[in-house]
Specification:
alpha/beta; 7-stranded parallel sheet
């Protein structure tokens, strides 16, 4: 059970600095009454954090072993023999279209060799990966095990057709089962060799800027059983699970909840405020702060932060702070922390 701790002005004293993201400016570490990891645990398990958390409260764990074999390493061939080319514009790697491994899902057993991850040097990966346990350690399983992986094998058009082609659907489900079983083995290795992990983040992009790639019926038939399997496995290891699913997929949040994910961080093309209103007591939603006019004075940012806290700092229904330009403003961030700390301490 979380205990309230009165706010002190000394909490804003900088005691350290973390490396910035992607070589950016360093991130200050403050004299908080509990560390950000404990605050994140209070969010997940008590539904009452000490302050509204954002991305700076986590320590995303990216072992090179995973990235080069199953993730999006720079200009490498993964464990399935698919080449990933780094794309500077997006800051990530993609498989270029035009050279699918197969075009009919019924061919997958002849073309896909599930890697034997026991042969990988997990002990060295753990030794080489430094984790700052003051922050919530979460490993991100980039590319996941379902639609994104299917696209890497078939190219987007062929993968999309396979989902709706009744003659391919059974094969798609067989492939998803094999990949989900692989995912569970990966999770076993991660938990064994990175015991400080608190959470597992699973990737599977489901939508474009305007709509989901496939219907709810397809999602329930082809994806939901395997999402449940992954979530149940993660929970059996005593970890919480979050979902990374890009695109305008707010109409699929009921499935994310049913699958067992504790959190989803929607992109800004989704109505994150409405999602929080409707589902925030069932799944933690990353809510994006409203825009603030460029060049606005500091007090405008502070008032925006207070308005955000007044609406979303709710015990039993807390959100996390999603990405927005306003949320990156120092005045907004400072006021958000102080104001939400005081509010949660008084509950």
């Amino acid at each position: 059970m979380q205990r309230s701790i009165p706010y002190s002005k000394h909490e804003r004293r900088v005691v350290d600095e973390r490396p910035g993201f992607f070589g950016g400016p360093g991130i200050p570490v403050y004299n908080t009454p509990v560390n950000p990891r404990e605050n994140t645990r209070a969010l997940y398990y008590d539904k009452k954090p000490y302050w509204l958390p954002g991305g700076f409260d986590t320590a995303m764990v990216h072992p090179d072993l995973y990235n080069t074999n199953l993730g999006r390493g720079r200009d490498i061939s993964d464990a399935f023999g698919r080449f990933w080319e780094f794309e500077a514009t997006s800051g990530g790697s993609i498989t270029r279209g035009g050279n699918p491994l197969f075009t009919d899902a019924n061919e997958w057993k002849d073309k896909v060799i599930i890697p034997n991850i026991d042969e990988w040097d997990w002990a060295k990966a753990a030794e080489d990966t430094k984790i700052d346990t003051r922050f919530a350690p979460i490993v991100s399983l980039v590319n996941g095990f379902w639609f994104e992986r299917l696209i890497s094998f078939m190219d987007f058009e062929n993968a999309a057709i396979a989902l709706v082609d009744e003659e391919q659907q059974d094969a798609v489900m067989e492939l998803f089962q094999a990949l989900t079983d692989l995912g569970c083995r990966v999770i076993d290795k991660m938990v064994e060799h990175f015991p400080s992990l608190d959470g597992i983040n699973v990737h599977d992009d489901w939508g474009s800027q305007k709509a989901p790639f496939f219907s709810e019926e397809i999602a329930r038939k082809l994806f939901l059983p395997f999402m449940k399997q992954i979530c149940n496995h993660i929970h059996s290891k005593g970890r919480y699970t979050s979902l990374h699913s890009c695109g305008h997929v707010e109409d699929r949040v009921e499935l994310f909840i049913e699958a067992g994910f504790e959190e989803w961080q929607p992109q800004t093309m989704n109505n994150t405020r409405d999602l929080w209103e409707r589902y925030g007591d069932r799944i933690i939603v990353g809510v994006s702060p409203d825009p603030v006019p460029e060049g606005a004075p500091e007090e405008v940012y502070r008032q925006a932060a207070r308005d955000f806290v007044d609406r979303f700092a709710v015990a039993g229904k807390p959100c996390t702070v999603g990405f927005s330009p306003a949320g990156m403003n120092p005045a907004f961030s400072e006021e958000l922390y102080e104001y939400s700390r005081k509010k949660f301490a008084s509950m």
